[in-house]
Amino acid sequence: MNEIATEISDHALVRECLNDDQQAWRQLLDRYKRLIYASTARFGFDAQDRHDVFQAVCVQILKNLHSLRNVSSLRHWILTISLRQCYALLKRKRAERGQEPDETARGVEDHRPHTIQIYLAAERAEKLREAMEELPDRCRLLLELLFFSEEKTSYSELGGRLGLSKDTIGSVRLRCLDKLRKILQDKGF
């Protein structure tokens, strides 16, 4: 699969996963790993606990993906599994320490994002990803390289990859952002 230009839909990804395509499984987990790890943030787990939750979620996805009725709710389904695993780990940790939830601890203000905030952020990211898929190939590639790539790419390099002059990258970027903005508005973003 072309990592930048081609990202398959959740429907196709789930279908491939159910056909035991290992690359599809890796792509599914890669697509949703930030959502899974973000759901652990609310619970204040250390790195090892976050990894344990991630692994438990992966196992649940593997075991239960065949029972997913509506692929369009995949993101919500994975978030639900993540939160259940977080609550289960929290319950085990409290039991190990012999603790019941403390009334004073419940009253402490928590400034970490609430689960609904994490979910809403994930929904916004999903809408953005869908809108990016609707862009023409050149715009999608340009915006991915400019804003989503781990490595910074110079306008000269971008021009070379896209067959454009480095002096036109700025104006093409603006037109592509306008197209993206229009698509997002049409989606109610």
Architecture overview:
This protein has helices at residues 10-18, 22-41, 47-64, 74-97, 103-107, 115-134, 137-148, 155-162, 169-186. It has 2 domains: 1-114, Rna Polymerase Sigma Factor, Chain: A; 135-189. The protein has 189 residues and is mainly α.
Number of domains: 2
Per CATH, which architecture of the largest domain? Orthogonal Bundle
Count of distinct strands: 0
* Overall shape: elongated
Q: Percentage of helical residues?
A: over 70%
In CATH terms, what is the fold-level topology of the largest domain? Rna Polymerase Sigma Factor, Chain: A
Low-confidence stretches: 1-6, 103-109
The residue-averaged pLDDT reads: 83
Q: What's the CATH H-level homologous superfamily of the largest domain?
A: RNA polymerase sigma factor, region 2, helix turn helix motif
Structural class: mainly alpha
Report the end-to-end length measured between terminal Cα atoms. Answer: 29 Å
The CATH class of the largest domain is Mainly Alpha
Taking the sheet with the most strands, its summary is: none
Tally of individual helices = 9
What proportion strand? under 5%
Backbone CA Rg:
20 Å
Query: Could you state the order of secondary-structure elements as H and E?
Result: HHHHHHHHH
